[in-house]
């Protein structure tokens, strides 16, 4: 919706900039209010000019028409508050504007802070994300490729499947191979704490990895831990029936949230919008009816309401609704007769290779790929262009055709076709 009192303002321009990315933020008065808590009007104006692609200090200075020293100071201040991220890449510092989710919305609540009103911000987030619904609907209903996916609880995977579970499907592999590991407050439960509705699940258990962890640790938004401590926290999450919801990539996963069904926006969105089949793991819960004693423990513990109780001839049995099951394994852990088990899904989910591949796939499904290619705030280097084109080539044939159609450039179409050997 339009808001005349903010039309043309720096905040309005920033919202337009955010919505050129696949993970945007629908315009709303609440969104303006959120941005006003997080940054000044001047900072919003600077943010609105930044490119979609990563950039360095010299590029920011050129865009902002200021000295590199002034640009460096502004970038460092934004990075200190986790509004942008600063990344060490091959010995040089680069910056990027993260999406709102998973990004600077969460970062603002991943520790206790005195520089912003987190109680007010919590209420604004609740109203904007949960009550208005447009934000989460756009985020999770835009296509088959989502920002996150479910990791199955590894102890619940049957032995006959254990050797066939791919590394990227294991949360433990993400932990063991990460360059950096950070632990922060759970954004969702921190918000619920301010609202007085928080559950008793662990609070300091939000996991970030690799480049995201490095920048959050650097600026005090996360506590650095080693792999052993992170594995202990994962076991604690299992004990509290939390669902592992992580970045939907195969390489260099940047986050794994440990989600409860009462506070977590991701699980609430799965239930509300019926998108379990685009976010689920490659497993599904199945019930051996002859072993089921109808105790109802699985129904009560399922985080997305995928299990119901049926009754026939006075005998109660549990039944899994396949299209609602996310394959987390929480129910399996609590079945007293071992009637429940995780089975491999007949059709595996397509998981993007890395973040670039994921963003390109999401942009293709949402009709925004041209924004990634023709972002004219910074000249696209051949290397960066190659990264996007490489991601296009990894898309399935039909998606790749959609991508080429969106680019609307004969030169790029020819380049893609030549590289693919078409």
What does this protein structure show overall?
- With 422 residues, this protein is α+β, with helices and mostly antiparallel strands.
- The protein has 22 helices and twelve strands.
- Strand 1 and strand 2 (92-96) form a beta hairpin.
- The model is unreliable at 1-5, 376-382 and 407-413 (pLDDT under 50).
Could you give a short description of this structure?
This protein is an alpha+beta fold and 422 residues long. Helix content is 46%, strand content 14%.
| Main sheet specs | 6 strands, antiparallel
State the secondary-structure class.
alpha+beta
Low-confidence stretches: 1-5, 376-382, 407-413
Share of helix, binned = 40-55%
Q: In angstroms, what separates the terminal alpha carbons?
A: 44 Å
Helix run count: 22
Beta-strand level of the residues, as a percent range? 5-15%
């Amino acid at each position: 919706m339009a808001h005349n009192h903010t039309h043309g303002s720096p905040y309005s321009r920033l919202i337009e900039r955010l919505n050129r990315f696949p993970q945007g933020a629908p315009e709303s008065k609440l969104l303006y209010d959120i941005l006003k808590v997080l940054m000044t009007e001047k900072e919003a104006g600077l943010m609105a000019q930044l490119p979609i692609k990563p950039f360095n200090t010299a590029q920011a200075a050129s865009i902002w028409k200021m000295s590199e020293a002034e640009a460096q100071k502004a970038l460092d201040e934004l990075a200190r508050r986790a509004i942008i991220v600063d990344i060490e890449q091959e010995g040089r510092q680069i910056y990027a504007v993260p999406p709102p989710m998973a990004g600077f919305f969460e970062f603002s609540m991943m520790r206790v802070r005195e520089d912003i009103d987190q109680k007010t911000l919590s209420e604004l987030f609740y109203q904007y994300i949960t009550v208005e619904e447009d934000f989460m609907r756009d985020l999770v209903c835009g296509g088959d490729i989502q920002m996150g996916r479910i990791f199955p609880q590894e102890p619940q995977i049957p032995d006959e499947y254990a050797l066939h579970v791919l590394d990227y499907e294991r949360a433990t592999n993400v932990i063991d191979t990460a360059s950096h590991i950070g632990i922060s407050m759970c954004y969702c439960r921190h918000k619920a704490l301010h609202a007085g509705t928080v559950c008793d699940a662990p609070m300091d258990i939000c996991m970030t990895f690799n480049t995201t962890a490095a920048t959050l640790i650097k600026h005090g938004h996360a506590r650095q831990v080693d792999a052993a401590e992170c594995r202990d926290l994962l076991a604690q999450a299992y004990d509290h029936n939390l669902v592992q919801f992580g970045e939907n990539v195969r390489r260099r996963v940047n986050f794994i949230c440990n989600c409860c069904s009462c506070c977590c926006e991701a699980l609430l969105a799965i239930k509300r919008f019926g998108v379990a089949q685009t976010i689920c793991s490659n497993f599904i819960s199945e019930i051996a009816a002859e072993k089921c004693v109808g105790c109802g423990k699985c129904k009560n513990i399922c985080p997305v309401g995928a299990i119901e109780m049926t009754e026939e001839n006075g005998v109660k049995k549990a039944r899994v609704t396949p299209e609602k099951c996310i394959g987390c394994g929480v129910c399996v852990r609590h079945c007293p007769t071992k009637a429940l088990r995780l089975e491999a899904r007949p059709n595996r989910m397509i998981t993007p290779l890395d973040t670039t591949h994921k963003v390109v796939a999401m942009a293709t499904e949402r009709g925004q790929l041209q924004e990634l290619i023709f972002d004219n705030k910074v000249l696209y280097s051949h290397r960066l262009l190659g990264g996007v084109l490489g991601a296009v080539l990894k898309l399935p044939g039909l998606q790749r055709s959609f991508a080429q159609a969106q680019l609307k450039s004969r030169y790029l179409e020819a380049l893609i076709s030549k590289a693919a050997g078409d």
